[in-house]
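User: For my dataset I need records formatted as: sequence, then structure tokens, nothing else. Please produce one.
Assistant:
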Amino acid sequence: IRLLEAEPLAVLLTGLTTGLREAYELNDATLVVLDPDHEMRRALADLGEETAEHPRVLFVADVRALAPAVLARGRPWLGPFRESTHGRLFPGNKAPQSVAVFPLRRRDAVVGSLNLASDDPARFTRQHGTEFLEHVALIAAYSLENTLNRALLTRSGFTDALTGLRNRRYLEARLKEELARSQRDRQPLVCMLLDIDHFKRINDEHGHLVGDHVLRELAQRIGREVRASDVVARYGGEEFLMLLPSTTANSAHV
């Protein structure tokens, strides 16, 4: 029930890793999430969260790349830990004795995995039943999809339709959060305003369709230059604004 009710996304990710590890007294619990278009990572960024704040969540473009011998089967796997097979599912911690890997499935496709590890070699064996934890994995997949969809709906209301950047409404809300964070952590915050010179001339001489192309092109160029923690928004007609957390004025200039 807690997983189904978990919101926002950051709370759900914590519940599926730290929450399960503590609830079942495990050595480790990790989550593999299929995120080829970075939608989930952008949803976290909207909350002001870095992926580094969720080190037990592994975002991947292909879930089978992490553990092909296990996840390619699409079925639960319980048994002794093997570094060559399971090592990438449990990065950073000492090797466990037994593991349980449960693929997350939505619409007949594997969209990730829930991975549990124990120091007890008898905790997860091939003789154990998997029905209960398969049910947990089903709830996890359902909750991830629902929570992400809600985040994307919220995001659409904060997105400029032409450029795909954040809009002024989002910026006003995010600016308050970043100012509060800057003051709390005693870190600098840079606000950078950019605009296109002589943009009216472009529209007058070449038409508004060309003007729209210029806006989209500039938005893409700005997007390629910023960090994941930075905020880029379309502030006005041809004006763009960037918030650069934990950045000095000299670094912002560079």
